[in-house]
Write a structure and sequence with these properties.
The chain contains 23 helices and 17 strands. By secondary structure, the chain is an alpha/beta fold. The protein has three domains: 2-49 and 376-425, Urease, subunit C, domain 1, CATH 2.30.40; 51-315 and 354-364, TIM Barrel (Alpha-Beta Barrel), CATH 3.20.20; 320-350, no CATH class. Strands 1, 2, 3, 4, 5, 15, 16 and 17 form an eight-stranded mixed β-sheet that branches. Strands 6, 7, 8, 9 and 10 form a five-stranded parallel β-sheet that branches. Strands 11-12-13-14 form a four-stranded parallel β-sheet. The longest helix is centred in the last third of the chain and has 20 residues, at 439-458.
Amino acid sequence: MIVFSSRVLQGGAFVPAALSLEGGLIVGVERVGAAPDGALDLGDHLVTPAFVNAHTHLPMVAFRGLSDAATMAGNVVEDLFFRLERHLTAEDVRAFTRIGAYESLLAGVGTVWEHYYHGAALAEGLRDVGLGGVVAPTLQDLDGPGRDACEAQLEATLALDADADLAAAGVVAALGPHATDTVSDALWRRVARLAADRALPVHAHVAQSIEEVERSFARHGRSPVARLAAVDVLDAAPAMLLVHALFCGDADRALLDPARHVLGFCPSSQMQYAFPADVPAWRAAGLRVALGTDCAASNDGMSVQGELELLAGAAAWSTTFGPAAARLARGGTLDDARRVQAHRARRHAADAWAPAALLDAVWSTPGGLHPRHRVGILEAGARADLAVWDADHPALWPAADPLRALALAHAPPALHAMVLGGRVVGTPGDLVGSVRRSAAYAAALDEARGRRHHLLRRAGLAHLGDRS
């Protein structure tokens, strides 16, 4: 298959090019002025890599709307999600994954970094829809819904890693220790050895709640990140995705290697269940950022592109809540107002993101984390995951700066077509409608509805099922 457009993203610019696709991969890129014979000619539509969601839990789409202000005020993971997850079956996970995968591809996502229970079923749910994934079956041996299934989930991880058919479908494995307070030193060391021996990335939650930090100091006398250094996992894994890192200071960041460690930022979710991470401090330490949505139960939306605007504005809140603004609130003088503006100008100069750098957080940074699943870039050897955008759609027009439009506009309505693993999904120009009308989607939705109903009943939460 050959795909041609007069605007294919290459080297930070949109140029006429033909992409040759074979076996699910891009096998060649040629800059040509016209569509070769037999090519899929996309005219002047923008062709980019599909987005990469660097941290999510797709099956939790079934939990959307169950949390409220009261549960979000506490530890929603332990107080609500664990309660539901103890009743999940593998069949539930596969069914709910399909719906989350459909939502993702309709938002321009080609690959998700997944971290959840019943990993083998989750991988099958991704394959059912055609979405790529780096699946980390959740490993817990101290606490949590997966504690009694830890060995089975570790075996599932290694089986996923060895499954050539799944890899050909764009689904590969990562090691998924849940968090520092649910994983023992022994299991962390085991993960470190496997990561080194099998060249597998590690995907974990780190310092995501005050309870986790308190347990780390109580049990180990050190912060979560310092504990990971003490058990040698930071140096063993070829790549490590550390998600949230809300309770981290300069000493923690100094333990991380910019070449090996990537920090996962999920701003919409963090604003609901906690607070946004200090991304400017991450950047000041030279650390890379990968953007994720987290789950629909703590975010509500699953468009990783929609998170880019929050990433771009991460530094701006320091002006709102900084000392200059506090002085303005007390005094209200002209000099106080000028100090606020001066603070804003300094932070903007230090922390402003260029559109290309923003898009790296949903393209090349997470796309380069797995040695056997290269995505987020349009070049030979990468998986053939393409997003095609209508620059004349009202959501993007006039797209005078296409990269800025893709980074900061609400882009998904302008999605013209998706190509996943070299396969065109749905009907170009009618992507959403064609997917929604498909028999596969109708069957997936029907099963997910039934399974959600029975899950809530088993968990004693049937009253949350429909509060309309």
